[in-house]
Amino acid sequence: MLLKHTTDEIKARKALTINPAKTCQPIGAMYASLGIHGCLPHSHGSQGCYAYHRSTLTRHYKEPVMAATSAFTEGASVFGGQANLLQALDNIFTVYNPDVVAVHTTCLSETIGDDIPQIFNKAIADGKVPEGKYVLHANTPSYVGSHITGFANMTKAMVDYFAVSNGHKEKTVNIIPGYVEPADMEEIKRLGDIMGIKTIMFPDTSKVLNGPMTGRFKMYPEGGVTIKELKLAGSSKGTIALGNLASGAAAKALDVKCKVPCQILDLPIGLQATDMFIDTLRQIAGVNVPDAVTFERGQMIDIITDMHQYFYGRRVGLVGDPDQILALAKFLVSIDMCPVYIVSGSPAGKKFVKRLEEITQEVPYEVKISVPGDMFLFHQWIKQESVDLIIGNTYAKYIARDEDIPLIRFGFPILDRVGHSYFPTVGYKGGIRLLEKILDAILDRIDRDSSDISFELVM
Amino acid sequence: MTGISILKERKKQIYQKGAEPFSITCGKHSLAGSVSQRACVFCGSRVVLYPIADALHLIHGPIGCAAYTWDIRGALSSGPELHRLSFSTDLQEKDVIFGGEKKLYHALIDLIHEYKPKAAFVYSTCIVGIIGDDVEAVCKKVSRETGVETLPVHSEGFKGTKKDGYKAACEALFKLVGQGSVDNISPYSINILGEFNIGGEAWIIKDYYKRMGVNVVSTMTGDGRVDDVRRSHGAMLNVVQCSGAMTYLADMMKEKYGIPYIRVSYFGLEDMSKALYDVAEYFSHNPEIMTCTQELVRYEISRIYPELQKIKTAVKGKRAAIYVGGAFKAFSLIKALKYIGINVILAGSQTGNDADYEVLRDMCDKGTIILDDANPLELSKYIIEKKADLFIGGVKERPIAYKMGIGFCDHNHERKTPLAGYSGMLNFAREVYLTVTSPVWQFAR
């Protein structure tokens, strides 16, 4: 078998990551940048970084992913990347004509110490940034944090560069959706719409990375938050940040900069987290929850009760990004499933781990948590004592196959399936779909394993 | 989408046959700010060495470089699978400040102890080049202490282009060559260079040579084994498929061990047959080999000929755009497409050189666009202008083709069916046929 190299004996590793459960900052920044309307992400570093990020995002979303690169060579790494970035901005605005260029750094440009704001100033002074066009940047060395930190940094940069207070309190509510699929962003906006609330979502990759087929290649698809909206975000009534790790930084920055109060919630995965989101949104906007939303909620509860007999006591291995595994763990516990192994490659801090421990304290098994950890360790745990279900990204499929365990693909990246960017897993509707996926995986497995005698029409 | 402008600096990298006297600029660094489809030095090294399945591949750098190359290449192994795991020193900020040598040393010791690989490759990434870790010294120390040869691969991303990565990989491989015993190697023996076994191609090709009576000492690097590489200097001839990647190694082996080499392509009936005949020709002092080769070619072509003719009738006159990594691949694709009656309206490569583009010009029909180091806008511009029905490229090109409502064939590493050899040609023709004639495009137009 493929992972026959994985041993169940766990030895301490200090200097080595095997089969990572994370990737690096710039790709998160690139993803966030794509959530600005008319934005061309720009990678300030060697050509390989951006080629890998584009390939990985392309494989995940099955959409063209545009970005530019400073194309560093040895010269740039010795003399600094200023000349490259200036030339790049000039070329980009001349030929590709974006509204915005979002620059993120790489480990190379960070280490040689390029000062992006200074280079921006020079570019603006030299007339390389045309009137009415914008630039922004985030520092995203690959040796710090993970793709989640990169997403958070670029999202915060949107606040730092654009949000301003216009002196009034507008009726808008800001929503920072976290590192989720375009479909999730769409679903969160839909809930806001049903409640009659004007929301400003940033970043917003819906319609950018799950847009329609039109017979035309569009460099800048329809969706994305506009700069006008980002400016207005500084005057909104409040901000809801979903997922502390991916969205907290931007929300806090907006509070400090423009005095827009923020609430940092878990990702709205599952009933309670969605309730919390809806309730917070209701309070900030000062509206009542319409019947349509209550109806959807009722449907989700109905599904949960129909399904619950199959859930209780099932052992689940969870591997993924911190905000997601936290929300998922809470959801699973609430439907009586048992997340027993939880791994995130992204560093998320002691408080985060403590919260995971609290969430899982009632689970009647030993719960193992490793943040940051890698898939090799996750696999070793499973080898020691198996689980009924794995929830993780595509790379978890190796473990699922080797250990013959059903897998639900969740998170980033999902390279071997199509459709995840169209179907949400947040909100009540998304929750229903997630529940269906979990139940299907469990029942398919029972069908597959049952003998002829016990194989039944009704389960 | 008309009215797309082309970067001024890129004009010399685009040529339309028949329009003006031939001139194309290539081999230059991508322009800063262009949306190039190219990658870096590390990428070049990684793709070449990746298929060596019983070696340890440790990426010394931050996590991204390891994560993005974790088993994306799909090079199949008939035995060990060690190459499919992802090992990284996962450098953190403090390592960047204080140096990563200690971390590298401990990682190597742990891994070699655990997996007992035949050899270890250590890839240096951008950051390692900048902070100046002495990877060479660490590798030497580890080799000495463990007895497992540990080879540094100098693949700092910024130190050139993907081609320089190929060179770094060849240099690492060359250190292995010459270490093994050459006993019992047949006088009719070859090495296959630059075949990566992405869909099992190396197995098809090896089978052909075996049926000809030619012994394959090593395949570098598809389904590769360290010990085979070690004794590859015992072969009589090197047969180079991916010339961009492996000619450098072939040259070094020629110089040091006197092994001549030929360039071949295993794609398309014409090139595949030539690849076999050229080898038979080389061993012409044994006429039996030529006889076997003729029989093989006749047999294999007759097997696929009828279906190819049917496909030809169905796809004749369709128009294809090609954008691939190496120019050699483009040559073969043009021939193969012409064979089934498809016109090539655009041919481009990421890494072609002057000589390559001259060949391309000679092969293409009047009006064909030839592109060096293109970007999505240019590609989409010409696909529309030239009314392509089919795009052949790699991962980043697929959704562009689909967005425009035309068929696509992956000729990089996102496929599972082999496209080399005679059966591969049939696979390719079937794929072209299926995608071009798919009923889904009726919804797109």
TrEMBL record, chain A:
- EC primary class: oxidoreductase
| Annotated Gene3D superfamilies | Nitrogenase molybdenum iron protein domain, Nitrogenase Molybdenum-iron Protein, subunit B, domain 4
Give the Nitrogenase/oxidoreductase component domain ranges.
Answer: 24-442
UniProt entry tagged with the keyword ATP-binding: yes
Return one GO MF term.
nitrogenase activity
UniProt keywords, alphabetically: ATP-binding, Iron, Iron-sulfur, Metal-binding, Nitrogen fixation, Nucleotide-binding, Oxidoreductase
**What reaction is this protein's catalytic activity?**
N2 + 8 reduced [2Fe-2S]-[ferredoxin] + 16 ATP + 16 H2O = H2 + 8 oxidized [2Fe-2S]-[ferredoxin] + 2 NH4(+) + 16 ADP + 16 phosphate + 6 H(+)
E.C. no: 1.18.6.1
- Sorted alphabetically, which InterPro entries does this protein's record hold? ChlB/BchB/BchZ, Nase/OxRdtase_comp1, Nase_comp1_CS, Nase_Mo-Fe_CF_bsu
Name the PROSITE patterns for this protein. Answer: NITROGENASE_1_1
Comment on bound cofactor? Binds 1 [8Fe-7S] cluster per heterodimer.
Required cofactor(s): [8Fe-7S] cluster
Question: What are the record's GO terms for cellular component?
Answer: molybdenum-iron nitrogenase complex
The record's annotation in SUPFAM superfamilies points to: Helical backbone' metal receptor
- Oligomeric form and interacting partners: Tetramer of two alpha and two beta chains. Forms complex with the iron protein (nitrogenase component 2).
Family, similarity comment? Belongs to the NifD/NifK/NifE/NifN family.
Q: What does this protein do?
A: This molybdenum-iron protein is part of the nitrogenase complex that catalyzes the key enzymatic reactions in nitrogen fixation.
Indicate what this protein is called per its UniProt record: Nitrogenase molybdenum-iron protein beta chain
UniProtKB/TrEMBL annotation, chain B:
Q: Which family does it belong to?
A: Belongs to the NifD/NifK/NifE/NifN family.
Cite the annotated pathway: Cofactor biosynthesis; Fe-Mo cofactor biosynthesis
Tell me one GO molecular function of this protein.
nitrogenase activity
One BP annotation, GO: protein-containing complex assembly
Q: Which Pfam families match?
A: Oxidored_nitro (PF00148)
Task: List the transmembrane segments.
Answer: none
Q: Where is the Nitrogenase/oxidoreductase component domain?
A: 40-435
NCBIfam families to which the protein is assigned, alphabetical: nifE
> What is the protein name stated in its UniProt record?
Nitrogenase iron-molybdenum cofactor biosynthesis protein NifE
Keywords assigned: Nitrogen fixation
State the superkingdom.
Bacteria
Its annotated function is as follows: This protein may play a role in the biosynthesis of the prosthetic group of nitrogenase (FeMo cofactor).
